[in-house]
Amino acid sequence: MTEAMYYVLLALMRPNHGYQLMHAIAEVSHGRVNMGPGTLYGVLSRMQKDGLISLAENDGRRKTYKITTDGEQALRVEYGRLKALIEDSRILEEGEGNG
């Protein structure tokens, strides 16, 4: 899963439309990830095809997306993988100061 996909799923724990989603991603990533409209809509399209998100509402002017059960499961699996990476990296902290 790409970083962009991870943050889109994380931001979609609450349904959002595109513009709100760009701001929510910047917020949950503490400003590290700023996604432009082209990137965002490409990711949304791919994730919708993969069944990770769905259209919650389309009023003709804006589309509101929500995470699906499969999307939430994928997010939890990725979270576990990232957490394991951090745990595996503890050796770096143990090795500090050993020059």
From TrEMBL:
Q: Where is the Transcription regulator PadR N-terminal domain?
A: 13-76
Q: Name one Pfam family in it.
A: PadR
By its UniProt entry, which InterPro entries does this protein fall under?
Metal_resp_DNA-bind_regulator (IPR052509), Tscrpt_reg_PadR_N (IPR005149), WH-like_DNA-bd_sf (IPR036388), WH_DNA-bd_sf (IPR036390)
* Superkingdom classification of source: Bacteria
Protein's name in the database = PadR family transcriptional regulator
Q: Which organism is it from?
A: Bacillus infantis NRRL B-14911
Instruction: Name the lineage.
Output: Bacteria, Bacillati, Bacillota, Bacilli, Bacillales
